[in-house]
């Protein structure tokens, strides 16, 4: 029997007194690749950050792996939006990925040779080993995104949360990233992805969360990715190719 990956029950989030998420509830089992969809300003990133404990929430319950967040925090890898990262920070690619090993090293422990070799292996997995000595700010958007995925891989996590990983990147990088996410899913990892390109939903995900401040659907793609649900969530007629649309 597969373990529950995540349970969110009655989640409410507000900023400065304005409600951003209202009574959002969903549950998924482990081993799913889950897309989080909704129009701009729908609260997709807010949902992810609330689940990860990065922002406070007003009400509701969240469990990951049948545990509280604090008990599984080291098993979670998070890749934020590229726009939220300081690309001028003076750090080379190899050291960026090595940071992914720190959560499990503990305080006052330095990475060992094996950790450094593992970081390089993670870079190889995303085709970025040859850039190991490059400054992170010198890379293209797609290369930067692959490096941050490598950092997440270095954590050896069970749960992966990626916020808009395909925005502003090249086709080749996008293909490498989605293939790596599918490999993680095959290894029974659970992946949540904030996503915006509706034309690729059916190819990329097997489960969806559809929100616009409140929940409009959560479950299998074939069930959620229907014209009626999408138009309600987006508040306008949509014309998107796909079996469900």
Automatic annotation (TrEMBL):
A GO MF label: ATP binding
Glycoprotein recorded as keyword: no
Pfam families according to UniProt: ABC_tran
Domain ABC transporter: 6-237
Keywords: ATP-binding, Nucleotide-binding, Transport
Domain of life where this protein originates: Bacteria
PANTHER family (alphabetical): IRON TRANSPORT SYSTEM ATP-BINDING PROTEIN HI_0361-RELATED (PTHR42734:SF5), METAL TRANSPORT SYSTEM ATP-BINDING PROTEIN TM_0124-RELATED (PTHR42734)
Similarity section: Belongs to the ABC transporter superfamily.
Protein name in UniProt: Metal ABC transporter ATP-binding protein
């Amino acid at each position: 029997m597969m373990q529950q990956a995540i349970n969110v029950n009655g989640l409410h989030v507000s900023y400065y007194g304005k409600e951003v998420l209202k009574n959002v509830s969903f549950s998924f089992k482990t081993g799913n690749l889950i897309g989080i969809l909704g129009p701009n300003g729908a609260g997709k990133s807010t949902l992810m950050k609330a689940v990860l404990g990065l922002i406070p929430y007003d009400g509701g319950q969240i469990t990951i792996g049948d545990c509280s967040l604090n008990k599984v925090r080291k098993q979670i890898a998070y890749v934020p939006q590229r726009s939220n990262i300081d690309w001028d920070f003076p750090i080379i690619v190899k050291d960026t990925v090595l940071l992914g090993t720190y959560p499990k090293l503990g305080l006052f422990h330095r990475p060992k040779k094996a950790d450094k070799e593992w970081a390089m292996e993670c870079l190889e997995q995303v085709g970025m080993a040859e850039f190991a000595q490059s400054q992170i700010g010198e890379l293209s958007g797609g290369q930067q995104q692959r490096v941050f995925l490598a950092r997440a891989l270095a954590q050896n996590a069970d749960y992966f949360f990626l916020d808009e990983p395909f925005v502003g990147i090249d086709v080749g990088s996008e293909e490498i990233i989605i293939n790596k996410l599918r490999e993680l899913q095959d290894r029974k990892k659970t992946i949540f992805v904030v996503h915006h390109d509706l034309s690729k939903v059916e190819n990329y995900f097997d489960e969806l969360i559809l929100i616009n401040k409140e929940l409009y659907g959560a479950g299998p793609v074939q069930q959620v990715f229907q014209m009626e649900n999408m138009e309600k969530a987006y508040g306008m007629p949509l014309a998107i190719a796909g079996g469900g649309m």
